[in-house]
Structure prediction request, 98 residues.
Amino acid sequence: MLEDIRSHYEEKFPEHSLDTDLRKYLASVDDLSGFIWACSRMTPNKSLDEVKVTSILKKLKDKSFAAGVSRDHCRRCEILLGISLEEFIPEMIEGMKN
Prediction:
């Protein structure tokens, strides 16, 4: 499992490849989950229930919001999983709620 966790941070551990679904999902959700969480903190009740996909997509374009988050990493689902970001974000929000 440690190798799976390391694999999603390819800049630090380039010897680990994203060769399994688990590794691809870990790489896809890492930065995006933090970004979604930051967006939820901006809602009136600081709730995932209130965050909207359109708001997240808009904030992704604003490089000053959560500036430390890689926008390229947030879009990894498109390459690694073949799922558009617009499709993946609602799944992420639902998963984070649970």
